[in-house]
Design brief:
three-stranded antiparallel sheet; alpha/beta; Enolase-like, domain 1; eight-stranded parallel barrel; TIM Barrel; single chain; binds D-gluconic acid; binds magnesium ion
Length: 406
């Protein structure tokens, strides 16, 4: 069996997605997500201009060999663009292998380890009350875990708040412009507000629902330690990305000051980014996922390392990761022993039409496809209806104009 074609498809059914589609001489095709939000064309070019020709004629079943050929062959290792491109190829190869074997990919990864995959939804609102009400709505729809983000008094916009009309949507749906929106940030206002959100949430929602919060890399280690301590009485499942991801010793500081569980990893692209955090048990959940961490092959290595230290998975699953990534993540989640939680934000109807799939949500759990491969595809004609649109993630400045973390 040989690879005969590698297509790179960029489509924007509401937001931009990059998809790799690999065809073999047997006529089997496989798809992989290669979307890097706000930097999509860099990955598309990496695939199109650098990798596609190197893949033609190779045996698609030699997944690990191809992974190393692309990783070591680049010489320039790691990094989000390289690893997202490799992930797209790797995911498509697992799809092909599953189709050839006549099995869903989770069977090739060791088989079913759980009945369903517990997901968390996004509750947001302009006030504490509105946010808690949105969370109650998720719980009444069967969700067992909810992430809560509320507007900060005095700030016009903040991460994760879609506004009243778009509760549950992200603030960073693509603007029709390449120039990022600028937000204003105030750490004091944030720290003064968040504990009250969870105080009300626990009071209203009771002791059992799993509640989560995303700090989005915005605190210093000591500020994060203060927040973690103040949130302890409300028993969060996790506090996500409390400090900038590259500040790994910050996690050590934090760990010494709070028992609030810590999750991180959505911006990591390799096992080396996680190694210290995992082997020193500085985190409780590792949030890498298929598309940004080198595909199914590499993600499995990360999760296996984490399993040795009793650290659980918590894969990133925002809507800028395409249904192809979600389909692949659910296959991994079904098979690994140390699954924790899966983030889930439903895609728009246009996106679901471009990427027909057979994974499903029911009563707070998701189920991977039972079809051979990943159980997801790209409809090329529909994809062509939505050409690429320049779009950027927002940036953040302090009140005095200083550039900050978004
Ligand atoms: C999350 C993430 C996202 C990211 C987005 C960036 O936890 O879902 O923080 O909201 O900001 O994926 O592209
Ligand atoms: Mg996050």
């Amino acid at each position: 069996m040989r690879i005969t074609d590698v297509q790179v498809i960029v489509t924007c059914p509401g937001r931009n997605f990059v998809t790799v589609r690999i065809t073999t001489d047997d006529g089997v095709t496989g798809v992989g997500d290669a979307t890097l939000n706000g930097r999509e064309l860099a990955v598309a070019s990496y695939l199109q201009d650098h990798l596609a020709a190197q893949l033609i004629g190779r045996d698609p079943l030699r997944i690990d060999d191809i992974w190393h050929y692309l990783y070591r062959g680049a010489y320039w290792r790691r990094g989000p663009v390289t690893m997202t491109a490799i992930a797209g190829v790797d995911t498509a190869l697992w799809d092909i292998k599953g189709k050839v074997a006549g099995l869903p990919v989770y069977q090739l990864l060791g088989g079913r380890a759980r009945d369903g995959i517990t997901v968390y939804g996004h509750a947001s609102g302009a006030t504490v009350e509105e946010t808690v009400e949105a969370a109650a709505g998720y719980l009444s729809r069967g969700y067992r875990a909810v992430r809560l983000q509320s507007s900060i008094p005095g700030l016009d916009s903040t991460y994760g708040i879609g506004g009243v009309a778009a509760a549950g949507a992200h603030a960073y749906e693509p603007a029709d412009a390449a120039l990022p929106t600028e937000n204003v940030w105030d750490t004091d206002a944030y720290l003064a507000h968040v504990p009250s959100l969870f105080e009300v949430a626990r009071r209203e929602l009771g002791p059992t629902p799993r509640l989560l919060h995303d700090v989005h890399h915005r605190l210093t280690p000591n500020e994060a330690a203060r927040l973690g301590k103040e949130l302890e009485p409300f028993h969060l499942t996790w506090m996500e990305d409390p400090v900038p991801a590259e500040m790994q010793d910050g996690y050590r500081h934090l760990r010494h000051h709070t028992t609030t569980p810590i999750a991180t990893g959505e911006v990591f692209s390799s096992i080396y980014d996680c190694q210290t955090l995992i082997t020193e048990r500085l985190i409780d959940y590792i949030r890498t996922t298929v598309v940004h961490a080198g595909g199914i092959t590499h993600l499995r290595r990360i999760f296996d390392l984490a399993a040795l230290y009793d650290i659980r998975s918590g894969s990133h699953g925002a809507t800028d990761l395409s249904p192809v990534c979600l389909a692949a993540a659910l296959q991994v989640d079904t098979a690994i022993p140390n699954f924790g939680l899966q983030e889930y934000m439903p895609h728009t109807p246009e996106t679901d039409e471009v990427f027909p799939h057979s994974y499903r949500f029911e009563d707070g759990l998701m189920y991977a496809s039972e079809e051979p491969g990943l159980g997801v595809d790209i409809d090329l004609e529909k994809a062509a209806l939505y050409p690429y649109k320049p779009a950027s993630l927002p940036v953040n400045r302090l009140r005095d104009g200083t550039m900050f973390h978004w």
